[in-house]
Amino acid sequence: MYVRHVELVDFRSYPRVAVDFEAGPSVLVGPNGHGKTNLVEALGYLSTLGSHRVATDAPLVRAGAQRAVVRTAVISDARELVVEIEIVPGKANRARLNRSPVTRPRDVLGALRTVLFAPEDLALVRGDPAERRRFLDELLVSRFPRFAGVRADYDRVLKQRNALLRTAYLARKAGGPGAAKDLGTLDVWDSHLARHGAELLVGRLDLVTALAPHVAKAYDAVAEGRSQVLMEYRSGLAEDGAPVGADRQVLEARLGAALAKARPAEIERGVTLTGPHRDELALGLGELPVKGYASHGESWSYALALRLAAYDLLRGEGAEPVLILDDVFAELDTRRRDCLAGLVESASQVLVTCAVAADVPEALRGARYDVAHGEVTRVC
């Protein structure tokens, strides 16, 4: 798979820009703040329907514009797909596949697969559990696009359930008589949350099992085998510290029971306290957790290993993604730069952004594009 063409309209800093790419490595070079990351962010957004930099869509639309458009031509299995997304803050986005509208934007997921490694990825190992859950869920959708619907269903039910709990909480605080009445449909939402949550859990658990050996292999290559990598999915459904199994029916029953048990505390606090939205992907080196104990270099190596593992997993399952390395070589020492280049130089397509061309190892110096003042120009 590779991106042959990308066109942006009112996306970030670009009023309009169009760039042709080819298979193999391509390097986007230019001063900071001139739009290199904006270009690859657009490709990442088309792949995941989310940005690796911001949580909402509004910043993606150029100031003064009402909408933004990202359009790409992707070559996959010797055929070309044209994928387009129209981003309209505050309204439902619209998408097209081969110029034809699709029912929902998520219907284009899988047409373009990317793995994007950026400086923000340090949060994967140093940030909150939500960062690691997002990593898992985005990779899960790249692996099996149907999980986009599972995530959407779970998030919708969770939002409704939290709204119900919040309303009851406020009524109880105010001393009104409506609190018990407001909770009358909670059993129904519990059932929905248990069903969708169990399906999401099965996907995550299967993914972690498949991903773990790739993470260990990648970290061993990047860090020269200095520590043993540990990765464990920790669910609130675990009993006596034992890991949960991946049987959907069992997980649904256990999640339903956990919700029933947590209900008094949830009513007291007005929020859902159990479910996949509170789980953790625990990362360790040797016997110690990465967060709080790993050095800066070890943290970078672990973050890089997670992305390389995601790439290797998808490629090994026949869905080789476009690999995007956004301004990462400036953050790596010479040995890690060369190691990373050696691991990915055979990829179908690698898109690299950098401020200084000399930071990019020779193995990845393919086609070069200069990016300055909102223009992208191929120079070699």
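Second entry:
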Amino acid sequence: MAVTPEQIGLCGCWQVIAVRREREELDPRSEGPSNEIGYYATSLATQELSDHELMEVIRGHWSAIENGVHHRRDVSFGEDACRIAHRTGAHALATLRNLAIGLYELQCAKGRVEAKGCKSWRRRMTVAGALNLLRS
């Protein structure tokens, strides 16, 4: 069903795009592939990019996330090796990892990091030190 961005409360957008993905779990006990629908909103007019070009933009967005933030969380904090299965616990750990990366980036921007990277910085960080950073 076609809708306008205004009809769904996204004034200022020109297009809403629905992308169907087939997702396959790596767990052999899973019930097989599942379909997911992702929705994207853009201020690009319909004639600015072809459907193929829009898909490339969407893939590029996710590629940057996977290769940027996720890669960083995995390398610095071993996120992929973490076996916390409960959704609330996994969400809490992801939030703490993001907080730590944010603190690291703020310290880098202020020129206060002597470590060669986030991984070595976090090894030196204590809870008291992190709390002091949050207060400053």
